[in-house]
Specification:
Elements: H1 7-14, H2 16-23, H3 27-34, H4 42-52, H5 58-69
Helix pairs in contact: 2-3
Length: about 70
């Protein structure tokens, strides 16, 4: 079973600019996701989950952002 990564971990492993090119999203937006300043829209999260081939799931995309907002 493959270990899931949080969205910031996935972005770190892939690179902000490379991921932005791969999924056709502005690199500033990806930077905001990495630093938990915003979260992807659901349709973009689905795109990320499919692109990651199992490294991301709904929880790993949204939980870090939600936790950062409840501190």
């Amino acid at each position: 079973m493959q270990k899931t990564l949080s969205l910031p971990e996935f972005i770190n492993s892939h690179g902000v600019r490379q991921l932005s090119r791969d999924i056709n999203i502005d690199h500033v937006t990806v930077h905001y996701w990495k630093h938990l300043k915003s979260a992807p829209r659901p349709e973009t999260a689905l795109k990320l989950i499919k692109f990651s081939k199992g490294k991301l799931n709904w929880e790993s995309v949204y939980a870090p952002y939600a936790k950062s907002r409840t501190k």
